[in-house]
Amino acid sequence: MSKIFISDMEFFAFHGHYPEEKTAGNKFLVDLVIEADTRKAELSDNLNDATNYQIAYAIIKDVFVNTKSNLLEKIASDILDEICTEFENLEKVTIKIKKLNPPMGGQIGAVGVEISREG
Predict the structure, then answer these.
(1) Cα–Cα dist 97/118, whole Å
(2) What is the pTM of this model?
């Protein structure tokens, strides 16, 4: 089994519990790790045999840009649902989402969630 990852994807979006988060927006960082058997792609050197990172990125971007959620848990769950539907050969997929500089009344670098699903 191999790990495929996309790190430090950055999005500006309007997710959050508080009204100001939904109007002012915030910056988010996202990491995705997909665990899958990559042997076929290793041997063929053909994108059709691989987990296409570009499709995974497009799914994540679409959820961030085109939805509004109150909780990071909901965003993560929606992304994982889409990824698991798109790619059939997954053993496990993990997403980590961080909201930078959250409005919590103090100096906080980030808050976040990390959620995994097994295929």
Answers:
(1) 18
(2) 0.93
How long a stretch of residues is the chain?
A: 119
CA contacts within 13 A on the Cβ side of 111: 13
Domains of the chain, each with CATH number or no CATH: 2-118 (3.30.1130.10)
Determine which one of 22, 27, 96, 99 is catalytic. Answer: 99
User: pLDDT 10s digit of each residue in the chain, 119 long?
Assistant: 899 999 999 999 999 998 888 899 999 999 999 999 999 999 999 999 999 999 999 999 999 999 999 999 999 999 999 999 999 889 999 999 999 998 878 899 999 999 999 97
Let me know if 99 is a catalytic residue.
yes
Helices 53-66/72-86 angle, 10° precision = 140
